[in-house]
User: Fold this.
Amino acid sequence: MYARERQRQILEALTRTGRVAVTDLSAQFEVTTETVRRDLDQLADRGQLVRVHGGAVPRRTGDVEPDLESRRVTNIAAKRRIALAAAELLPTDPRSAVLLDAGSSTAELLPHLAGRRGPVITNAPAIAQGALVHTDLEVHVLPGRVRPTTAAAVGSTTVDALRALHPEIAFLGCNGLDIEGFTTPDPDEAAVKAAMVSSAAKRVVLADSSKIGARHLVTFAALPEVDTLVTDADIPTALLRQLIDAGIEVITA
Assistant:
């Protein structure tokens, strides 16, 4: 078996189980433990997993959360392709309410709101400001404390406001996506995202390739709670199967 195929199967096993061991992989592939360690080191160098004693775990479980300015200049082309594909999911009725989560991917939807006349609701003051260029829109900013890291309104007042709303569709971002669901590092932001998932008739997550296979502190939505995932990357077979089994439509931009 070639190294590339072996490494692909290692990533799929990691997606299924959340951890892989050198000794188990050595026995599975009938290669030496040194060969497996070399595979894991190469995957870690490419940012596809995190090496731990005796094996590996999903990447970015302990990473520092990037701030909004950093995310605005990361994977820009991919995020624009994702937004273009996601815009096809906007309700055909231009008066339908649309909920936009804070984030650099969801912000790329703003140019696609031209011609709409309904409410656009967001917990991101920057997204609200950007939506104002479309003068026919009713722009609503959710209340709450604004987190400096993500410039998103969070807290109990934000969650309470969302409980009273029933938008036709919500577009959400995430920091990680694996078999456990959709994750983010901050509990307060996770609570707001979970409230968005509960409030909307249709839930769409926008996730570029850097989020696939990553797992962060808090799960804000299990797989069956999301209707559509829009991404720019080929998803590992095991994870793709889990998504399809959960009823998620997967769109690759």
In short: The chain is about 35% helix and 20% strand. Residues 99 and 227 are 15 Å apart (CA to CA). The domain at 68-252 is CATH 3.40.50.1360 (Rossmann fold). The two ends are 31 Å apart (CA to CA).
